[in-house]
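re: ur msg from earlier - yeah i can do the NAP complex, just paste it... oh wait u already did. ok heres what im feeding in:
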Amino acid sequence: MTSGAVTLNRVLILGAQGQLGIELQKAFQDAGPVVALGREWCDLASPETIRKAMAEVNPAIVLNAAAYTAVDRAESEPELAMRVNGDAPGVLAEEARKINALLVHYSTDYVFDGSKQAPWLEDDPVNPLNEYGQTKLAGERTIAEAGGRYLIFRTSWVYSPHGNNFLKTMLRLGRERDQLRVVNDQIGAPTTAASLARATRAVINAGVQDRDAGIYHMTCAGQTSWCGFAQEIFRRAQAPEGKIWPVVTGIPDTEYPTPAKRPKNSVLSSAKLKARFGVALPLWQEALGETLIEMDAD
Ligand SMILES: NC(=O)c1ccc[n+]([C@@H]2O[C@H](COP(=O)([O-])OP(=O)(O)OC[C@H]3O[C@@H](n4cnc5c(N)ncnc54)[C@H](OP(=O)(O)O)[C@@H]3O)[C@@H](O)[C@H]2O)c1
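and the outut:
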């Protein structure tokens, strides 16, 4: 998958300092004029700032990488999470429709309850287990209701060299401890922000028609548990000098209680994305290797 040099009209990226926002800026850097805004310029909790940003930038494409992503905190801040994840995408979609812009938005595996024994398809029944999932589902619906041109990419277990994520937590804990106990009964596909950003660019390059509007699953290929992810991190990452990485033992999620309940099976099928746009993301282990190399080079 390459990000060929298709020139686009103005691209607006929201959530510029987030994991995905940073990678989208790289993937679209040769795409024509790109305007990347953080919360200080476009606060999704404030509809006026969204309308102002859309009017001033007048984009042909909006890539919305901004979201309230603190899954556990959302349990105690559901109203704010709903404003940002549920209401704001609808405002964005309405503004995009007025100027015939394409809205690209990201949603989550947490719209599902994890009960299926196979990878989730786009039209499988949704049933979020936590507030974050409820708010992201609301965002999918407000976008669809606005009736414009849109793509929603549902993804999972996102990480990158930047921000707070599972990879960075494991590397930090790995330096501090001799043993780690990690949940082994939740499965999903760890997905790098870089893979998501490149796949997004490849979809745009493939050409998006009005009839393509809808939801697509977009994750790295393969699947594992959080425990399997941790073991692969320590298998591939270079240990600090004089240190051996810890032994990682699997535990059920009942032994690691969190404020937000999480699905057991988060694996999403990305077959629709491949069928429509010819775009597929790499295996999660390959994407992990690439990320570790990038972190080493920093
Ligand atoms: N991370 C995951 O595991 C995961 C899994 C599935 C789906 N997703 C979805 O993937 C997308 C990208 O996530 P990510 O991992 O890149 O998240 P991230 O690193 O947490 O970045 C989110 C960005 O949104 C910004 N933001 C938060 N509230 C805002 C507000 N009120 N107004 C404007 N900006 C605001 C944050 O800004 P501040 O830095 O100022 O807080 C941050 O830069 C999101 O739609 C997320 O729901 C993520």
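cool cool. The pocket of NAP is lined by residues 15, 17-21, 39, 42-45, 65-69, 84, 106, 108, 136, 155-158, 163, 193 (CB under 6 Å). ping me if u need the other ligands too
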